[in-house]
């Protein structure tokens, strides 16, 4: 493979956005070369959604994305909707299931989505070349020259689809940010998103023993609010509720948890229960809503032992306030090692929202997660990868 080559389009990164872009550009009649340093394409697709890939969300709106420029994603999301991707996978015979409202997963395996994309690349004549490190990229008017471990490649258009920093063991690098920097683009500081929280010792002491327990909560941080399950792990707090708020949380802030969203006014409910069953324990009441282990741990942690008749109205008010408004200050997050996404990234102000071209560098495009556009949990990140990849592929 070593030597000098000339193609129309080079796409760097054979992940979700890069594969979609390469296939779409190939269908436009371009000679497309898709390069990746990894030994396999689409590794994150394969590990996503617990191996079933939550490949889109039918309810996608721009409000499901975090970005310094919340308008940037609108155009692409409108032009390439979730239904376009559903249509694509259905044409390839992929069966899918809607696990939660709007969230579509493969019925069988995430491999099906990767197979669709690789087949599309093949049909479109886009060449996928793996195990290729890119050593240098330079602007050679009217195009680019890439010096790679497998030789030099010249192209008219260069698409950067190298993703974010999450899961370095899957091939994630900061290469896209370095290229952005090289071409004079601003890069917003990055941090791990959709990531479990780690705990201060005082919280970890009682929660770690409850590892594996999941319960429905309403979690809030940084102005965002999510009604989802919380999962206690031996390292900290996870589950959809925590992953979602982690993308809005800033270090040093508290996270607010309503452990009992099912009961609007627990104080009134407890006073009523005390009247009906004064000899019953508070723990017994809690067991209506929580597992036995969690109910017992809440009682032990907050000193709620005893029968309800021993609780004054004020004390029941305190119990209710704790259940509805528990706050904890995470010691941090598990970081890029387990994060599903990377917040921050290439500043979208410098990029056209129609064709993802850098306004000041004709022929250079950035797509997917490398940009400062991060979706919430639930298939939105892949929808962003498909939409930005398709719009760019059509425009090259
Ligand atoms: P992506 O990361 O997919 O691809 C980037 C590619 O660039 C990789 O192939 C990488 O090897 C390559 N690359 C990086 N540096 C390079 C370099 N220097 N040279 C050459 N190549 C380089 N989203 C969702 O919507 N639904 C879901 O179910 C999940 N589940 C999920 C689970 C887990 C565990 C993770 C980590 C993430 C998810 N996500 C998700 C998020 C989703 O995977 C992510 O947003 C997209 O894969 C982003 O697509 P990109 O193509 O932008 O990057």
TrEMBL record:
Gene3D superfamilies: FAD/NAD(P)-binding domain, HI0933 insert domain-like, Translation factors. Keywords: FAD, Flavoprotein. InterPro entries: BaiN-like, BaiN-like_dom_sf, FAD/NAD-bd_sf, RsdA/BaiN/AoA(So)-like_dom, RsdA/BaiN/AoA(So)_Rossmann. Its cofactor is FAD. Residues 191-341 form the RsdA/BaiN/AoA(So)-like insert domain. Residues 8-394 form the RsdA/BaiN/AoA(So)-like Rossmann fold-like domain. NCBIfam families: aminoacetone oxidase family FAD-binding enzyme. This is Flavoprotein.
